[in-house]
Specification:
Distance between the termini: 16 Å
Number of domains: 2
Strand content: 15-25%
Order of helices and strands: EEHEEEHEHEHEHEHHEEHEHEHEHHEHH
CATH architecture of the largest domain: 3-Layer(aba) Sandwich
Strand order of the largest sheet: 12-10-14-15
Shape: globular
CATH superfamily of the largest domain: Nitrogenase molybdenum iron protein domain
CATH class of the largest domain: Alpha Beta
């Protein structure tokens, strides 16, 4: 088993004062600062690939939140020339581009990518700029991009306006699992002509995942972990949190209990599910309420002191930094 390093990745989590968190130091399988650096800049060997223009074929995934089902279809996308003015409509895609694309080719960054509540590269993005509200189609068009990456939650109106303005955009669709992130990184690399860098980033992810898995304690049942956001919602099977749990060998309790996407639960349900660990969003005040609730005083996690705050950016990661989230969660679950 690898030695555990002191984990600063979850220090955001400890910013909410709580009796059970005073003096708590977490240990992670990988030094989080070093891991973040590895995930932020990936350079591989140049690849001999088809010239421009190139036709890219890929599998597009759409998630129907009403039926909690996926629909897949084969798509084609024509890139006429190597893009030099690139925009990303989501934080996750911005984080991928930050790692594999020469940064002078990223013409602007979304305001959300500069917000540490949502982005692992917020400080770097604020320093580099420029920033824009990229949810506004007119501002996107005004940046004169030659390639825009959209995702499943990009509005239909934005996509319609981009099409009307003849702005080339690649709709990446739904992704969140580790396998789908690998596919998206390689697809983005192909679309911008940085295949070697994309492959290098996937290797960094896989090496880190292997390291985290090797550091898991043996001979014990998988810990059962429940995450609550500020409004008491829990993430289910199709969310990033399930992938994070899978990497560290833990059980996402809400997935175990049949939650597919997100569901709001009450304290009676928490007691019924009785997780080993309860995580809650930093700054939500949930920790104090959970610790002082008479009903939850009988819950295993409360009795054993296994209730922990964690910054929401670790839960919503939908880029290579999902591995950083897994490293932090491993520190919480295994590193006390």
């Amino acid at each position: 088993m690898l030695a555990l390093a002191t984990c600063t990745a979850a220090l955001h989590a400890l910013s909410e004062p709580a009796a059970w968190a005073q003096g708590l130091r977490l240990s992670c399988p990988i030094d989080p600062d070093a891991l973040k650096e590895r995930l932020s800049f990936a350079r591989g060997e140049a690849q001999e690939v088809e010239p421009w223009p190139r036709l890219i074929r890929y599998t597009g995934r759409e998630f129907d939140f009403r039926t909690a089902t996926f629909k897949e279809q084969t798509r084609s996308f024509l890139v006429r020339r190597k893009p030099s003015r690139i925009l990303a409509h989501s934080v996750g895609v911005t984080e991928i581009l930050w790692a594999i694309c020469p940064r002078e080719r990223i013409v602007a960054f979304s305001e959300l990518a500069a917000d540490p509540s949502f982005s692992f590269i917020a400080s770097s993005v604020r320093e580099r700029g420029p920033l824009a509200n990229l949810q506004d189609a007119e501002l996107v068009i005004g940046c004169r991009p030659d390639l825009v990456f959209t995702v499943f939650y990009s509005s239909a109106d934005v996509k319609k306006k981009l099409a009307q303005a003849r702005v080339t955009f690649l709709d990446l669709g739904y992704f969140g699992t580790v396998d789908s992130l690998r596919e998206q990184i390689l697809l983005i690399g192909e679309a911008i002509g940085e295949e070697g860098n994309a492959q290098a980033l996937v290797r960094v992810m896989d090496e880190a995942i292997d390291e985290i898995r090797r550091a898991r304690p043996g001979g014990r049942r998988p810990p059962r972990v429940l995450y609550l956001d500020a409004n008491g919602y829990v993430p289910g099977k199709t969310t990033n949190f399930s992938s994070i749990c899978e990497i560290i060998g833990a059980v996402n309790v809400s997935e175990e209990q049949g939650v597919t996407s997100w569901a709001q639960i009450d304290y009676e349900t928490i007691l019924k599910w009785d997780p080993d660990f309860i995580l809650f969003s930093t700054g939500s005040g949930l920790g104090r309420r959970i610790a002082s609730d008479r009903l939850l005083a009988h819950a295993r996690a409360v009795k054993e002191g296994n209730i922990h705050p964690i910054a929401g950016v670790y839960i919503c990661a939908d880029s290579q930094f999902l591995v950083l989230s897994a490293n932090a969660l491993a520190g919480i679950v295994y590193g006390k």
